[in-house]
Amino acid sequence: MYAYCLAVCEDDQVVREEICRFCHEVLDENEISHQITAFSSAEELEEAMETRAQSFHLLILDIKMKGKSGMELAMELRNRDEETSILFITGYDEYIEQGYEVQAVQFLVKPLIWEKLRTALLKDWRRKHLPKTLILQKGRQSLQLPIDKILYAETDGRHGVRIFLEDGEERFSASLTEMENAASGQMVRCHNSYLVNVQHARRIDRQTFILDDGQRLPISRKYLVQCQEKLVSLVNR
């Protein structure tokens, strides 16, 4: 399974552990598979990326550290890497302008406002790492669809699924469970026979899922809480 990989580089052990713990909680709550590695210095992180060829999707960097600063590391990184996201955490706000030079996704000043870290973390994951394509495979057959174009799917009664799109319909020999797993949390089961794309969810009305085009799908009691939690998670992202 795809894992969102973070490096937390902070020389204060207490702050470092708090950041790691908070990131774990946020990503677990949102069912995002992840790996978080902690570093106490920029040199330690640099060695991991160069000597051990360890790669990360997001670097959470303290700027003011003993030895090499987080800003120096970020500037060196940007000379060879445009893709890795960088989030700065510091007690000094005079570095904000430099943060723009290295395309930092966020600049958070200590003491941390944890909700701002939550927002920045989920925004980076959604913008750059949320799968954009649904891929179904069965034997030699395969189907690829843009997830944002899928409205919902239902069983076809013949061991397959009917997938309803913004501009048409597809059929494929796969189960709803297989499709749900392939969607990496972007679709939610609302009924034994239906799977809904949460991107197109407008609201839940009693026991009905209402999509943004007005279509209404049933929600069974078994899946009601799951659907409500998924909608709340979507709003928080």
Automatic annotation (TrEMBL):
Keyword presence, Zinc-finger: no
Molecular function, one GO term: phosphorelay response regulator activity
Keywords associated with the record: Phosphoprotein
Keyword ATP-binding recorded: no
Listed transmembrane segments: none
Residue ranges of domain HTH LytTR-type in the record: 134-233
Cited function: May play the central regulatory role in sporulation. It may be an element of the effector pathway responsible for the activation of sporulation genes in response to nutritional stress. Spo0A may act in concert with spo0H (a sigma factor) to control the expression of some genes that are critical to the sporulation process.
Name recorded for this polypeptide: Stage 0 sporulation protein A homolog
